[in-house]
Amino acid sequence: MVKYFSDVSASAGGGSENECENIEELEIPEQFVFMLGGERELKNIEAINVSGDSMEPTFSYNDIVFVNRAKTDLNRGGIFTVRTEAGLFIKRIQKRIDGKVDIISDNKVYSTQTLDPREIEVIGRVVSRFGDVD
After folding, report:
1. Which of 1, 2, 10, 68 lies at a 20 to 30 A Cα distance from 35?
2. Between the CA of residue 30 and those of 6, 35, 66, 132, what are the distances in Å?
3. pTM (predicted TM-score)
4. What span, in angstroms and rounded, lies between the C-alpha atoms of 50 and 129?
Protein backbone atom coordinates (compact mmCIF):
# COMPACT_ATOMS: atom_id res chain seq x y z
CA MET A 1 0.00 0.00 0.00
CA VAL A 2 1.10 3.54 -0.81
CA LYS A 3 -0.25 6.76 0.71
CA TYR A 4 -2.22 8.58 -1.99
CA PHE A 5 -2.92 12.26 -1.36
CA SER A 6 -5.93 12.48 -3.68
CA ASP A 7 -6.52 16.18 -2.96
CA VAL A 8 -2.90 17.15 -3.66
CA SER A 9 -1.80 18.17 -7.13
CA ALA A 10 1.72 19.21 -8.01
CA SER A 11 1.81 21.59 -10.89
CA ALA A 12 3.47 20.72 -14.13
CA GLY A 13 2.71 24.32 -15.01
CA GLY A 14 2.19 27.52 -13.04
CA GLY A 15 2.29 26.28 -9.45
CA SER A 16 -0.14 24.60 -7.12
CA GLU A 17 -1.01 25.11 -3.47
CA ASN A 18 -2.85 22.45 -1.53
CA GLU A 19 -4.11 22.89 1.99
CA CYS A 20 -6.49 19.94 2.32
CA GLU A 21 -4.83 16.57 2.29
CA ASN A 22 -7.23 13.65 1.91
CA ILE A 23 -5.10 10.55 2.42
CA GLU A 24 -6.16 7.28 0.83
CA GLU A 25 -4.36 3.98 0.58
CA LEU A 26 -3.55 2.97 -2.95
CA GLU A 27 -3.11 -0.73 -3.54
CA ILE A 28 -0.57 -1.44 -6.25
CA PRO A 29 0.38 -4.63 -8.09
CA GLU A 30 3.40 -6.60 -6.87
CA GLN A 31 5.30 -5.99 -10.12
CA PHE A 32 4.86 -2.25 -9.64
CA VAL A 33 6.11 -2.49 -6.04
CA PHE A 34 9.36 -3.86 -7.49
CA MET A 35 9.56 -0.88 -9.89
CA LEU A 36 9.21 1.49 -6.91
CA GLY A 37 12.22 -0.06 -5.19
CA GLY A 38 10.64 -3.03 -3.43
CA GLU A 39 8.69 -3.48 -0.20
CA ARG A 40 11.36 -1.73 1.92
CA GLU A 41 10.92 1.52 -0.06
CA LEU A 42 7.11 1.66 0.19
CA LYS A 43 7.29 3.51 3.52
CA ASN A 44 8.98 6.41 1.64
CA ILE A 45 6.60 6.49 -1.33
CA GLU A 46 3.66 8.88 -1.62
CA ALA A 47 1.36 9.39 -4.60
CA ILE A 48 -0.01 12.74 -5.80
CA ASN A 49 -1.74 14.08 -8.91
CA VAL A 50 -0.27 16.05 -11.80
CA SER A 51 -1.94 19.24 -13.00
CA GLY A 52 -0.84 21.32 -15.97
CA ASP A 53 1.08 20.61 -19.18
CA SER A 54 4.63 21.88 -18.60
CA MET A 55 6.03 18.35 -18.14
CA GLU A 56 4.38 16.88 -21.23
CA PRO A 57 5.08 14.48 -22.82
CA THR A 58 6.67 12.92 -19.70
CA PHE A 59 3.69 13.59 -17.41
CA SER A 60 0.17 14.66 -18.34
CA TYR A 61 -2.71 16.28 -16.50
CA ASN A 62 -4.32 13.81 -14.04
CA ASP A 63 -1.41 11.36 -14.03
CA ILE A 64 -0.64 9.97 -10.59
CA VAL A 65 3.06 10.24 -9.76
CA PHE A 66 4.93 8.32 -7.09
CA VAL A 67 7.36 10.39 -5.05
CA ASN A 68 10.11 8.84 -2.93
CA ARG A 69 10.45 11.29 -0.03
CA ALA A 70 13.76 9.72 1.07
CA LYS A 71 15.40 10.72 -2.23
CA THR A 72 16.07 14.45 -2.00
CA ASP A 73 19.67 14.69 -3.22
CA LEU A 74 19.79 16.93 -6.31
CA ASN A 75 23.43 16.25 -7.20
CA ARG A 76 22.61 13.74 -9.96
CA GLY A 77 19.58 15.65 -11.16
CA GLY A 78 16.29 14.07 -12.16
CA ILE A 79 12.59 14.75 -11.84
CA PHE A 80 11.52 15.94 -8.40
CA THR A 81 8.54 17.34 -6.58
CA VAL A 82 9.63 20.68 -5.14
CA ARG A 83 8.01 23.55 -3.28
CA THR A 84 8.91 27.16 -4.04
CA GLU A 85 7.27 30.41 -3.01
CA ALA A 86 5.06 29.95 -6.11
CA GLY A 87 3.71 26.55 -5.03
CA LEU A 88 4.24 22.82 -5.48
CA PHE A 89 5.83 21.65 -8.75
CA ILE A 90 6.96 18.55 -10.59
CA LYS A 91 10.03 19.56 -12.58
CA ARG A 92 13.27 18.26 -13.98
CA ILE A 93 16.02 19.59 -11.70
CA GLN A 94 19.66 20.09 -12.65
CA LYS A 95 22.40 21.50 -10.42
CA ARG A 96 24.64 24.07 -12.06
CA ILE A 97 28.38 24.57 -11.67
CA ASP A 98 27.72 27.94 -9.98
CA GLY A 99 25.68 26.17 -7.25
CA LYS A 100 22.28 27.34 -8.48
CA VAL A 101 19.53 24.98 -9.61
CA ASP A 102 17.80 24.89 -13.00
CA ILE A 103 14.07 24.12 -12.83
CA ILE A 104 13.28 22.63 -16.24
CA SER A 105 9.97 21.88 -17.96
CA ASP A 106 9.94 19.05 -20.50
CA ASN A 107 7.42 20.99 -22.60
CA LYS A 108 9.63 23.37 -24.59
CA VAL A 109 6.93 26.07 -24.53
CA TYR A 110 8.01 26.81 -20.95
CA SER A 111 11.32 28.45 -20.11
CA THR A 112 13.86 27.19 -17.59
CA GLN A 113 13.96 28.94 -14.22
CA THR A 114 17.15 29.28 -12.20
CA LEU A 115 16.89 29.46 -8.41
CA ASP A 116 19.18 29.45 -5.42
CA PRO A 117 18.92 26.03 -3.68
CA ARG A 118 17.71 27.84 -0.53
CA GLU A 119 14.62 28.97 -2.48
CA ILE A 120 13.31 25.44 -2.95
CA GLU A 121 12.20 22.64 -0.66
CA VAL A 122 12.80 19.23 -2.21
CA ILE A 123 9.87 16.96 -1.38
CA GLY A 124 11.28 13.90 -3.16
CA ARG A 125 12.27 12.24 -6.42
CA VAL A 126 9.49 11.17 -8.80
CA VAL A 127 10.11 7.45 -9.30
CA SER A 128 7.14 6.37 -11.42
CA ARG A 129 3.63 7.22 -12.59
CA PHE A 130 0.20 5.87 -13.45
CA GLY A 131 -1.38 7.55 -16.44
CA ASP A 132 -3.21 7.22 -19.70
CA VAL A 133 -1.48 6.57 -22.98
CA ASP A 134 -2.32 9.21 -25.57
Report:
1. 10
2. 21, 9, 15, 20
3. 0.85
4. 10
